[in-house]
Structure formats: structure tokens, C-alpha cells
Design a protein that fits this description.
Layout (H helix, E strand, L loop, with lengths): L50 E5 L9 H5 L5 E4 L2 E5 L9 H5 L7 E5 L4 H6 L10
The protein binds iron/sulfur cluster (SF4) (2 copies).
């Protein structure tokens, strides 16, 4: 899709979120929605993020806390299963990591340039609880 910058729109133009019919938009997955070229969903914010969450499926219990608390709807969940992160829209705020309840956490923040496999290889071990 061809994108438009904010200065390319006519003054007073009506900006629509979607192209065409939107009857079932609430139950349509983000990647299947007919976003219009004036919708900010089509723009990435990834180029200014300096830290990113990395997901380690091995420890995830699909509690959905990260999905509930992410302020940017960047956690991708299907059929109540956490399946990944929308890295085009994640701001790197770290809230998902804060709320993840597993031990060790199933999400951890890493520098933006960090290779994902390398991040997974240095995942911390389970912490022992002190009595
Ligand atoms: S780092 Fe912030 S924006 Fe990114 S997935 Fe986690 S909660 Fe959402
Ligand atoms: S908060 Fe952690 S354990 Fe819960 S779904 Fe998200 S990644 Fe999985």
C-alpha cells in the first residue's frame, strides 16, 4: 500500500480508518483489516525503539497479562495463546515484561540490535524462592 504523510492531505480532508466495508472489524485480526493509507497502523514506529521485548515461548503459560496491559496492542494473541509481538508497533516500554508472572519471565527486554537467538541463549534460569 502506498503511504501518505500528514502534509500530503488536503486541509479539511476526512481521514477514514478503513477502506470499504467494516462490518466485522472488531473480530477481524489486525493483519486482515482493510486499513486505509491515512491510518497510523500502516506506519511503523520500530525505527526509534532502542530496546525491545523478546519472547521465550518455553516459559509462557498463556496467561494473557501481556496482551491485556500492552498500551499499543502489540502483543499478538490467537485463541488465547500468546504467539508473538507486533514489532512494527511495539514502543519498547517494557510493561509486558513487568506484568509477565512466570519464573523466569517469558518476556525480557534486550537492546534493539540484539539477535533474537542470542537473546534466547542467554535467558536467565529459574530463580529459587527464599524461605
Ligand atoms: S514493550 Fe510495551 S509496547 Fe512493546 S509489546 Fe511490551 S508492552 Fe507492548
Ligand atoms: S504475560 Fe508472560 S506468561 Fe503471560 S502470556 Fe504474556 S508472555 Fe506468556
Amino acid at each position: 500500500m502506498q503511504k501518505s504523510g500528514w502534509s500530503e492531505f488536503e486541509i479539511g480532508a476526512m481521514l477514514r480508518s478503513f477502506e470499504g466495508a467494516t462490518n466485522n472489524i472488531a473480530i477481524t485480526h489486525q493483519e486482515d483489516r482493510p486499513y486505509s493509507k491515512s491510518n497510523s497502523f500502516t506506519a511503523s514506529v520500530a525505527d526509534w525503539r532502542i530496546v525491545k521485548p523478546v519472547f521465550n515461548k518455553e516459559y509462557c503459560i498463556d496467561c494473557q497479562f501481556c496482551w491485556i496491559y500492552c498500551p499499543d496492542i502489540s502483543i499478538i494473541s490467537r485463541d488465547k495463546k500468546m504467539i508473538g509481538i507486533d514489532m512494527d508497533h511495539c514502543k519498547g516500554c517494557g510493561i509486558c515484561v513487568e506484568v509477565c508472572p512466570t519464573n523466569p519471565k517469558s518476556l525480557l527486554m534486550f537492546p534493539e540490535q540484539q539477535d533474537e537467538e542470542a537473546a534466547l541463549s542467554e535467558w536467565p534460569a529459574k530463580e529459587k524462592k527464599e524461605n
